[in-house]
Amino acid sequence: MALIRYERWYNSLMNKAKNRTLNGYVERHHIIPKSMGGSNIKENIVKLTAKEHYIAHLLLTKFT
Asked: 4 — phi, psi (to 5°)?
């Protein structure tokens, strides 16, 4: 159950990041990590704040 919750939070963060524009400092993040078969295509990369990027990787470790 907890794994599903982490994955849902991760997907929510990724969807939010796809539909916005950030100004200032941003970090690029692979939605599907390259280590899990993801690629560098535009649709697989989002821009996150530093805090969001940290949280995204934390969530990935929780459900993978």
From this structure: -65, -40
* CA gap 38, 46 in Å, rounded: 13
Residue 1 is predicted with a pLDDT of 76
* β 27-30/45-48 pair status: antiparallel
pLDDT tens digits for range 37-64 = 999 999 999 999 999 999 999 999 999 9
Burial category of 59 from C-beta neighbours within 10 Å (exposed 0-12, middle 13-18, buried 19 and up) = buried
Taking the C-alpha atoms of residue 33 and residue 45, their distance in angstroms, rounded to an integer, is 9
Q: Per the structure block, which two tokens stand in for 31?
A: 């939605």
- CA dist 35 and 6 (Å) reads 19
